[in-house]
Amino acid sequence: MKKTFFFALLASLTCLQCNPPSKDKPGGDSATAKADEPAETIKKLDYYAQDKTLKEVIAAEFAAGRTPIVYFWANWCGPCKEFKRSLSDPLMQDALKNVTLIMLDTDVDDQKEKHGEDFGVSGIPAFVKVDKDGNYIDLIDGGAWDANTPANMAPVLKKFVAGETAAAPVN
């Protein structure tokens, strides 16, 4: 029994010497842990948790080198839930690479600032592409693809982000 305990203790000390715990991340080397974890390509930002105007949030994301997309959704919306669940899929990660989804809950927006009306949103989920000043460029909604699966959504969203769609301008 004493020999087993001694060898277990020796093995754990040897392991700690090879890869000592980092100050950044308890129990492991932070550089190794970061390399092993997939990089988040899609940033989700709850607009109503910010202390900035929508234009300021958009400008900050452009300044950070990201592509902001204003995303209108609601908790009760089935297609919105399917979209959210799909974000970890590799197809969606690729399609929305370097995108910041500025999330506007339509129930809150309708009671406050009415950005949905300003951008001509008539159904959700809806995605609005804007320029660096927060001006409307393009809009698509969940009707732009068939079933809400990554295989259907990702190609459409990838083209949308790249500016390869042309919706009618909002009056």
Explain what this protein looks like in three dimensions.
With 171 residues, the protein is an alpha/beta fold. 43% of the residues lie in helices and 18% in strands. It has helices spanning 2-18, 30-36, 54-63, 78-86, 90-95, 106-111, 115-119, 150-162; strands at 42-46, 67-73, 99-105, 126-130, 136-141. It has a five-stranded mixed sheet with strand order 1-3-2-4-5. The longest helix is centred in the N-terminal third of the chain and has 17 residues, at 2-18.
Could you give the count of β-strands? 5
Estimate the mean pLDDT confidence. 80
Biggest sheet details:
5 strands, mixed
- Order of helices and strands, N to C? HHEHEHHEHHEEH
- Specify the overall morphology: globular
* Helix share, percent: 40-55%
